């Protein structure tokens, strides 16, 4: 493989040792190192977000959102105690976050995962440590103040940034650097969601729309497993949403419903991606600088939350409530029906306007309420073959909606199964995910725009546009068969 021209002494004896190591030894060392960083980074961001949310939304705003099972499982506030404070707090959090990003690390703007994916394809040495730190703080402020975003983006950027740092310090080859950054993305997301197997598969699939990087899969097992061990040892190993639908037995009569979930989820995933990037494009054309636009977006989210508080922050607690019949029936029907659209709008205003946070988590919430809405309507109409509770529909909706929009159906399906402890739902959900993906893959839409089509097109791009300080050849970058 071609090496960067910084010389064989880069990284000292350890750099030379890694570069000369055979495949197994190299990726055991690098995989464990990236995994430890991913696990610790996930812990640090989780705690930063938790404390920020308790202070900003809880103490100042008087509002405590419900929590997912692994986060404590609290039902949250019965209503908005100080409704006038919510728009101000979301606005203030978005404003401070935007100032930090604009002044210290402009590349930390947005959801962050696209930047990491782009680094895989263009220059795996390019992620700055400063951007990682700014992303951590700015995302905690955005989401902790009520902005609609996911916690996976910052954790993915932390571990992807460490993979990029290793590539620079030890002068790893371009090919090894791409794998290292991919492992960081997958292990960071897998750790924060408590889904190590899904994280490993995600590392191999998230960088392409219609392909799979098998070189990242086996090292991904080491990296993602290590990250999960570190994260779980500190914050616990419980599935994020507990063991949902643990007694479910697959019923072939429900296959029609899984097909309906797949079609509805594809439509919502398509809308999510189009509306989000439409907001990004519109924001770029509007007058104003990169500080005021995210702040205005935060203010609009705060105002929308006065009518639909379920859009605030991550929304995982509302997914938890929707997994039980009693919980879902406690939410007004109109909120259940409108929440997928409202969450798309809120996430687009929070993150698409230039705020900082992930888009994976909101996609999970959107898909969950697609399934919840379908179950609620079917149950209300007394239609046949409908499960006794909404959990099965909620799980299938999560898998199908974001799995299709992210062009990572297998990874997201595994992740949601781990997050809910519900592998029994997988046989039926495969129908929903397959239909949703087949619908989306025929369109030019993806929630991650930095994805390349496949390994062939990515290799041709690298040969035509080599990254700075990386001398790549067609032979080096040709995809393995």
What does this structure look like?
There is one protein chain. The chain has 481 residues and is mostly helical. The chain has one domain (12-462): Orthogonal Bundle (Clc chloride channel), CATH 1.10.3080.10. Helices cover 65% and strands 0% of the residues. The protein has helices spanning 12-20, 23-60, 85-104, 113-122, 129-144, 152-169, 174-192, 196-205, 217-235, 255-285, 292-305, 316-322, 325-329, 333-352, 360-381, 391-405, 409-420, 426-440, 455-464, 474-477. The relative contact order is 0.15.
CATH topology: Clc chloride channel
Number of domains: 1
- How much strand content do the residues show? under 5%
Give the rounded overall mean pLDDT: 92
Care to count the β-strands? 0
The H-and-E topology, N to C, reads as HHHHHHHHHHHHHHHHHHHH
- The CATH architecture designation is Orthogonal Bundle
Q: What is the class in the CATH system? A: Mainly Alpha
The shape is globular
* Proportion of helical residues: 55-70%
Query: Ranges with pLDDT <50 over ≥5 residues?
Result: 1-8, 470-481
N- to C-terminal separation?
17 Å
Provide the structure class.
mainly alpha
Q: Count the helices. How many? A: 20
Overall radius of gyration = 21 Å
> At the fourth CATH level, what is the homologous superfamily?
Clc chloride channel
Defining key terms:
single chain, 481 residues, mainly alpha, Clc chloride channel, 20 helices, 0% strand, globular, disordered C terminus
Could you give the topology of this structure?
Elements (H helix, E strand, L loop, with lengths): L11 H9 L2 H38 L24 H20 L8 H10 L6 H16 L7 H18 L4 H19 L3 H10 L11 H19 L19 H31 L6 H14 L10 H7 L2 H5 L3 H20 L7 H22 L9 H15 L3 H12 L5 H15 L14 H10 L9 H4 L4
Helix pairs in contact: 2-5, 2-6, 2-7, 2-9, 3-5, 3-11, 4-6, 4-7, 5-6, 6-7, 7-8, 7-9, 8-9, 8-17, 10-14, 10-15, 10-16, 10-18, 11-14, 12-15, 14-15, 15-16, 16-17, 16-18, 17-18
């Amino acid at each position: 493989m071609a090496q960067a021209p910084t010389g064989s002494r880069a990284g000292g004896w350890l750099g030379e040792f890694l570069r000369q190591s055979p495949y197994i030894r190299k990726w055991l060392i690098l995989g464990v190192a990236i995994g430890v960083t991913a696990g610790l980074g996930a812990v640090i961001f989780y705690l930063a977000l938790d404390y920020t949310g308790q202070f900003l939304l809880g103490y100042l705003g008087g509002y405590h959102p419900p929590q997912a099972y692994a986060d404590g499982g609290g039902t949250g506030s019965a209503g908005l105690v100080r409704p006038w404070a919510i728009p101000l707090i979301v606005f203030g959090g978005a404003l401070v976050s935007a100032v930090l990003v604009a002044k210290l690390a402009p590349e930390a703007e947005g959801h962050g995962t696209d930047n990491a994916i782009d680094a895989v394809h263009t220059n795996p040495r390019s992620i700055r440590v400063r951007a990682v730190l700014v992303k951590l703080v700015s995302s905690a402020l955005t989401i902790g103040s009520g902005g609609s975003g996911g916690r996976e983006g910052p954790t993915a950027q932390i571990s992807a940034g460490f993979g990029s740092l290793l590539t620079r310090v030890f002068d790893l080859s371009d090919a090894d650097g791409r794998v290292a950054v991919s492992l960081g993305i997958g292990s960071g997301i897998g750790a924060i969601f408590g889904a190590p197997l899904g994280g490993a598969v995600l590392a191999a699939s998230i960088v392409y729309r219609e392909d799979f990087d098998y070189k990242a899969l086996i090292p991904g097992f080491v990296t993602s497993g290590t990250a999960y061990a570190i994260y779980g040892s500190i914050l616990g190993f419980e599935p994020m949403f507990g063991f949902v639908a643990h007694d479910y037995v697959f019923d072939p009569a429900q296959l029609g419903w899984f097909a309906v979930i797949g079609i509805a989820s594809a439509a919502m995933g398509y809308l999510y991606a189009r509306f989000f990037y439409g907001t990004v494009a519109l924001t770029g054309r509007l007058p104003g600088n990169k500080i005021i636009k995210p702040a205005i977006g935060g203010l609009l989210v705060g105002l929308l939350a006065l009518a639909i508080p379920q859009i605030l922050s991550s929304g995982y607690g509302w997914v938890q409530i929707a997994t039980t019949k009693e919980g879902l029936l406690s939410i007004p029907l109109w909120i259940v029906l409108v929440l997928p659209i409202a969450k798309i709008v809120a996430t687009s205003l929070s993150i698409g306007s230039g705020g900082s946070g992930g888009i994976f988590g909101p996609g999970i919430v959107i898909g969950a309420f697609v399934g919840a809405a379908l179950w609620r309507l079917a149950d209300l109409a007394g239609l046949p073959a409908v499960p006794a509770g909404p959990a099965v529909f909620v799980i299938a909706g999560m898998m199908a909606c974001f799995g299709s929009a992210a062009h990572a159906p297998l990874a997201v399906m595994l992740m949601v199964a781990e997050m809910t402890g519900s592998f029994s739902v997988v046989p039926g959900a495969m129908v929903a995910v397959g239909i949703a993906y087949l619908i989306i893959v025929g369109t030019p839409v993806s929630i991650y725009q930095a994805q390349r089509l496949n390994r062939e097109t990515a290799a041709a791009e690298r040969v035509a546009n080599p990254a700075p300080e990386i001398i790549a050849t067609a032979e080096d970058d040709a995809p393995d068969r």
